[in-house]
Amino acid sequence: MQYENVRTTCIYCGCGCAINLQVLDGEIVGVFPDPQHPISRGSLCIKGWNVASFVRHPDRLATPLVRQGEGFREASWDEALQLVAERMGAIYAASGPQSIGFLASAKCTNEENYLLQKLARTIVRTNNIDHCARL
Amino acid sequence: MREQICKLVAEKLPELAGVVALRQTAVGTAPYLFREGDDLSQLVLEPRYPLPSVVSMLQKRYPEARFGVVARGCDARALVEMAKRNQIDPERLYLVGFTCSAEQAAECYCAAPAPDTAGWPQAMVVGVPVAGAPPNPLVAQYEEMSLAERRAFWQQQFAKCIKCYGCRNICPECFCEACALEDPLWVEAGMLAPPFPMFHLVRAMHMASRCVACRQCELVCPAHIPLTVLYDLMRRDIGELLGYEPGADIAAAPPLSLTLADGMVHGQDQLL
User: Fold this and answer.
1) Which residues in chain A are contacts of B220 at CB distance < 8 A?
2) In chain B, which residues have their Cβ closer than 8 Å to the Cβ of A18?
3) Contact A30 B29 (CB under 8 A)
4) B219 vs chain A: nearest CA distance in angstroms?
5) pLDDT attached to residue B257
6) Highest mean pLDDT, choosing among A62-76, A102-116, B108-122, B254-268
7) How, if at all, do strands B43-44 and B18-25 pair?
8) How much is the pLDDT for B271?
9) Worst-scoring range by mean pLDDT, A6-10, A70-74, B9-13, B263-267?
10) Taking CB atoms and an 8 Å cutoff, what residues of chain A touch B18?
């Protein structure tokens, strides 16, 4: 029997609200805002309150999917990344850097987003990088 | 006071499955189930979290286990109303009560800043109770208003609502599995702010005879809507009209609990 709150940051937007994930026996059972947090000050929006609902949602993708005919098949990360690298390399060779764009995510950390724009600008040499909030 | 509470918790832990209280770590403070052998130097009393809801969840998950809870006055009142509605079992709960300071009481406009353990099966209160604080001055201001002004006041306040459901989510007395606030029959979906006045007044009606004035809803509201003005007046009316004070007496049946049986409406006399 174990009940604790695991402190983390909401991943839905860039505000950085604090959330406490209530964990009972290893399972997330709820969310509490944090009254002492300097940014969210004990409040959350509806997305923050429900932020834990996708963690074990049956619709959540747990493995990369590769398009196959009309549908998808499951693939390993190695295979998926290899495929992306090959296809992107071919498009790059045929059409140049402006043919490629990158979409970053609010659900990543600042550091991960930094790395993605670094990849876009220095490796692929394109400024075509944007953010999921403008999709 | 904290030392006294920790000592009491340490004494009680061997006979309990655990004690629900706040734990402070390097990353922050949040509810935690302290078990025998845990570091009680991490047990703190601030800030406020709805610990009664945690107790309810734990008791439901472990229907045989006995827990303890470190509770202030409003927590104890919330537990009383939850007990009456089968959300907690007081026989399986040891209440380690503590009194709020006069400053804390003033901040919450709290009329009863110490847990009342009369009628509570197993309880102990640490600290000397302070007097109740004066009520929220906004209530008196509100009562000076005409009906039209009151309507305009709430229209303006409710227009700020971002419909986060935080008031409902944080409330220890909001435990229904199916919520009227998510039912399109009562609250039209997809509107922001939610339709005036149904969203907030449906909730206010459901708080009648339940709201224990813990103020968690108001503290959690990102739009700073003064919800407790509404609930304070609801509490007053329930007191005046039905002689009932939510959270005060664990033996008093809630006046609005009715059952339908044999084609008849049965009131509190049949309930207990």
Assistant:
1) 33, 42-44
2) 28
3) no
4) 7
5) 67
6) A62-76
7) antiparallel
8) 45
9) B263-267
10) 1, 3
Provide the Cα torsion B140, B206, B201, B78; round to 10°.
40
Contact criterion met (CB < 8 Å) for A36 and B29:
yes
Query: Using one digit for the tens of pLDDT, what is the confidence trace for B59-85?
Result: 999 999 999 999 999 999 999 999 999
Q: Which domains does chain B have, with CATH numbers?
A: 2-126 (3.40.50), 137-242 (no CATH)
Chain A residues touching residue B61 (CB < 8 angstroms)? 24-25
pLDDT of residue B147: 96
Q: What is the tens place of the pLDDT at every residue in A40-91?
A: 999 999 999 999 888 889 999 999 999 999 999 999 999 999 999 999 999 9
Task: Find where tokens 């619709």 sit.
Answer: A59
Taking CA atoms, A82 is separated from A64, A108, A122, A130, B96, in Å, by: 12, 22, 20, 23, 59
A34 touches B: beta carbon within 8 Å: yes
Residue of A nearest to B219 (CA): A42
Q: Do A36 and B162 touch (CB under 8 A)?
A: no
CA pseudo-torsion sign B21, B24, B25, B30: positive
Instruction: Specify the residue for token string 């009309």.
Output: A70
Give the residue from B121, B81, B124 showing the smallest Cα distance to B99: B124
Q: What is the mean pLDDT of residues B191-220?
A: 92
Identify the residue with better confidence: B166 or A110. B166
Pick the CATH number of A3-54 from 2.20.25.90, 2.70.98.10, 3.40.50.2300, 3.40.50.300: 2.20.25.90
Strands (E), B169-269: 259-261, 264-266
CB spacing of B28 vs A43 below 8 angstroms: no
Residue A115 distance to chain B (closest CA, Å):
26
Highest mean pLDDT pick, A106-120, B178-192, B216-230, B233-247: B216-230
* Domain boundary assignment for chain A: 3-54, 62-95, 100-130
Inter-chain CB proximity A45 and B29 less than 8 Å: no
Q: What is the pLDDT of residue B36?
A: 94
Whether the link from the prior residue into A38 is cis, omega within 30° of 0, is: no
